[in-house]
Design goal:
This protein is of the alpha/beta class. 31% of the residues lie in helices and 19% in strands. A hairpin with a 6-residue loop joins strand 1 and strand 2.
Length: 191
């Protein structure tokens, strides 16, 4: 019998005005912080996080105004990198995290890595419309964008800058949903 993946727990960080909601799997091992792109939420990482197993601590964060995190009037990259650093510090993660950034969240992960300790930054997803043709049907529900007309104004700085290129795992928007187990194995090789 295959061992069951670690259970997901949901938590909050910050004050009501700057509340971030996140899910956590595991309690030890290399931290893996998962950041979704604009108009998505932390649920896009659930299949992958369940595949990562007990030897990592996976943390999937809802960016402000996404999922269950509180909206903000402006979401600057510097402010969010600092919020992310405070979250990582508050979790007591003793090792530098691997940051996995989907699309536009690459801005935050790169800024985090420039200011704080990061083991590796990996970006996935490209520009242009996301295609779900290659995503298996059971995982398509995790790749549905939100329809929030306020988000472009709040994240305007992110939309004008070119995406950084760290360790980039292809221009596909959802490689972690096409093959969660295969993507988890790839991440294990980066540790």
């Amino acid at each position: 019998m295959r061992p069951q993946p670690p259970r997901r727990t949901t938590h909050t960080h910050g004050t009501p005005a700057d509340l971030l909601v996140y899910d956590r799997w595991g309690r030890s091992g290399r931290p893996v912080v998962l950041l979704h792109g604009l108009r998505y939420d932390r649920t896009m990482w659930w299949p992958l996080a369940a595949e990562l197993g007990d030897d990592v601590t996976a943390v999937a964060v809802d960016l402000p105004g996404h999922g269950q995190s509180a909206p903000r009037a402006h979401c600057g990259v510097d402010d969010l990198a600092e919020d992310l650093a405070m979250l990582v510090y508050g979790l007591g993660l003793r090792r530098a995290p691997i940051l996995i950034a989907h699309a536009e969240s690459a801005h935050v992960s790169e800024r985090f890595a420039a200011r704080y300790s990061a083991h590796r930054v990996v970006t996935i997803g490209g520009t242009g419309p996301a295609r779900l043709d290659d995503v298996p049907e059971p995982y398509r529900q995790f790749a549905v964008p939100q329809r929030n007309p306020d988000l472009p104004a709040v994240y305007r700085d992110w939309l004008t800058d070119a995406l950084p290129r760290s360790t980039h795992l292809g221009a596909e928007h959802f490689p972690h949903l096409r093959d969660p187990a295969g993507f988890a194995a790839l991440l294990h090789s980066l540790r």
